[in-house]
Design a protein that fits this description.
Layout lengths: L12 E2 L10 E2 L6 H9 L7 H4 L5 H11 L1
Antiparallel strand pairs: 1-2
Helix pairs in contact: 1-3
Amino acid sequence: MDQAIKITAPRGIVIKQKVRFGKPCIKGTRIAITDILYLLQSGYNLTDIPKQYPNITIADAKIALRYAA
């Protein structure tokens, strides 16, 4: 039995089953929240993240961090 589960994500984050297997991503990108968290865990700071992922901003990285909290 297939059922769709509707998940509401905060503004700036999208969850689509066909994008990154349903992982929460920054809106308009295929960059998962876990990708950003991994960089932060590895010692990068918020200002370094757009250097690694030019399609996102520091504000996007902050949204990811708030979402994960």
